Amino acid sequence: MNYDFKKIEQKWQEKWRKNPYFNTKDRSNDKKFYCLDMFPYPSASGLHVGHWKGYVFSDIYARMKFLQGYNVLHPMGWDAFGLPAENAAIKLGLHPKENTEKNVANIKRQINQIGSIYDWSREVDTTDPKYYKWTQWIFLQMYKAGLAYMSDAPINWCPSCMTGLANEEVVAGNCDRCGTATTKKSVRQWVLKITEYAEKLLNGLDGLDWPERVKLMQKNWIGKSSGATVFFDIADKTNLKLEVFTTRPDTLFGATFIALAYDHPLVDSLTDAKQKTLVSSFVEEMKNKPASQDRFAEDTEKKGVFLGSYAISPINNEKLPIYLASYILSGYGTGAIMAVPAHDSRDFEFAKKYDIEIREVVKSTSEISNLYDENGNLIFAMEEDGSLINSAEFNGLDAKTEGAKKIIQFLESKKLGNAKTCYKLRDWIFSRQRYWGEPIPIVHCSKCGVVPVDEKDLPIVLPEVENYAPTGTGESPLANIESWVNTKCPKCGGAAKRETNTMPQWAGSCWYFLRYPNPNLNDKAFAPEDMKYWMPVDLYVGGIEHAVLHLLYSRFYIKVLHDLGYLSFDEPFKKLFNQGMVCCLSSKSGKVEKMSKSKGNVVNPDDMIEEVGVDALRLYMLFIGPPDMDVEWQTNSLKGTKNFLNRLWKFIFTEGSIVDVAPVESKKRFHLFLKDFQERLDSFRVNTAVSAMMEYLNDLVDNNLKFDKELLEKFLSAISVVVPHFSSELFETLLNKELEIASWPTYDPALVVCNEVEVVIQVNGKFRGNVKVIKGSSQAIVEKDVQPIVEKWLEGKTVVKVIYVQDKIINFVVR
Length: 815
Ligand code: ANZ
Ligand code: ZN
Hints:
It is a single chain. By secondary structure, the chain is α+β, with helices and mostly antiparallel strands. Among the domains are: 138-206 and 428-498, Rossmann fold, CATH 3.40.50.620; 224-423, Isoleucyl-tRNA Synthetase, domain 2, CATH 3.90.740.10; 635-753, Isoleucyl-tRNA Synthetase, Domain 1 (Orthogonal Bundle); 755-814, Roll (Ubiquitin-like (UB roll)), CATH 3.10.20. 35% of the residues lie in helices and 19% in strands. It has 25 helices and 34 strands. Strands 12, 13, 14, 15, 16, 17 and 20 form a 7-stranded mixed beta sheet that branches. A 4-stranded parallel beta sheet has the order 2-1-26-27, covered by helices on one side. Helix 17 packs across helix 18. The protein binds ligand ANZ and zinc ion (ZN). Ligand ANZ binds at residues 225, 245-248, 251, 295, 327-329, 332-333, 335, 337-338, 340, 343-344, 422.
């Protein structure tokens, strides 16, 4: 009997479509498990095997929890508004709606092929008016709470996408969507006060079971700095005062100049007549520079110009020249700094260039070599902690701790400054001058000003428009549809105009997970009882690229809805898992790169399924490497997992493999496998769980082990999370049952004891640790098991040989 994967997989997929036995029960008394994938945006190219990696991974846990008796919510939907979808449609000359529908159909077909237990009855589409009615409703709640406001401040602008962008969407000065260098543009825009939540967003990170690097990225993005603001008088201008923000108040005696951002409000009043021409040409130059918010871009040359005026140091009354400097950001702190060249490398570089005094005020307590040249001049800024010198009565204090504290106290007592905390996080530019998004539910009335749309008039439906291409004028294409724009003021009933900006693509994805429990709810965005039962999400699977975008924005939304009394929890995702990317050799560049259509290295799952089947592909996606790491796709290795399934099938159908009562040794071996398999799944090492399956098959064959019906049922139930079609078929054929009734098997601890041995790990003969493995484990298994332990010893080395003495020792010989 051959394993006819095509027939079998088709058969089961049809059955599951007709009878989705795994669909979610509404609230029940069962424990719940909310297993969520980041929903895709329906791009034209469809899924590639890179997308499969995350979806197969999450399906393992959805299926496992289902077999464990949990009420599982494992939904899927479409993040279909926004720039990517719209740009794609424009390119094809299609209406975004039409194009989106087409793409959704194709991707849905592809997702269905995975054989995952998605509950399609809860599908969500962010472009459905029944959905975005509530996206608009949330905006109104924010507006009413004072968290949404209009601003005319210059924002990041992408000249190619012809829209404003949030800071999070600008990467190294370029548009995150199309790579074009961004500029600054003053357009009227809507902004959300995410900064009001900086502290809450920061503190909330502590309690999350998220990868450390994502938490760190958010922490850095929020960028909390503690220090002080210091006020400086201006020489000969008694009416002016300059405020700077510093994280190093302890270095106040070392300040030798002041630097301002080019657009600081005091530039004009501080510019001396003699310097006017120089200053205005510098300002012009800075205006035209691309908008980089990255103060740490150390490579850029520091430039500046002297304004011709001086500030007075509040601590020693010295006159400090005031400069404009290219490295000062207008949006951070006060846009002005006291510069301490001896202890800040940016100031150091600037001082060297413009020949400004460099005065040391902190003596390092540890010896730093090469700090001075032969003439005793500093070669670089000493940013380390140390004790204060050249600082009058503060000398000798530990600079960053006591010194800072005492100097802040001094400033506060004389009203010359205050302790202060700054955040790098900026408010969130929330409007886009584009067509394909949720209309912002606001009306502008000449009499009443800005008026929110009545909640009962939601949704404000995105109108049909003939020309949806961006205008580039700072107005959205909606502005041209007079019949839509002209409306009545909800307040006074007079003639008024609709807001024509639309929301950014993130608006719909900030809260979609609240909608899945009941996507058809008509009178509310979500029901409190549902929220209480389902939220927070138990496992959230998606790519690292959303670390400071979607994942930060959603946390903000949830915290706002919590504070407004709509939710009882304030963090949406308890556990986050970032699946690594699938990379592949690109024929264009000759390099192994992230799989993407533009690089021409995409592997289409449709083709792979044709060749090896769904289960073999699932198996391979899990086996390809640690799930959180980037891995390289190799079509050849796919045959390996196909062969494995064939061999397993053959073994099971071999005369004598299934007996009435399995011998004790066979039972033991099975329970050992089960323990291993489950522990590895529990710790998210899915690749090694698959190797446990492979090892077990070798064991079955080599040692002539047997199944009885009980063992077989347990075995098939366990591996059904990985190869559901394969398992279902055997369940039916051999056990006369449906997988539907299966439950998650547990190993018998009595059968697995005394079967573990401790193996000594060595690298070049040196003891590096121990590892517990199952007695009789093969070299391949032990090698995999010890990887995390030996990793650091093997890094950058070549393994020449691995010497393995079964159950005793494994020694890596490296060069
Ligand atoms: C004096 C000083 C002495 C500073 C020293 C640093 C070292 P973070 O940690 O990133 O918050 N700064 C303040 N506002 C700035 C702006 N708008 N653009 C560029 N730089 C700015 O950095 C805060 C420090 O960066 C501040 O402390 C200030 O320089 C500078 F030995 O003040 B410091
Ligand atoms: Zn009005």
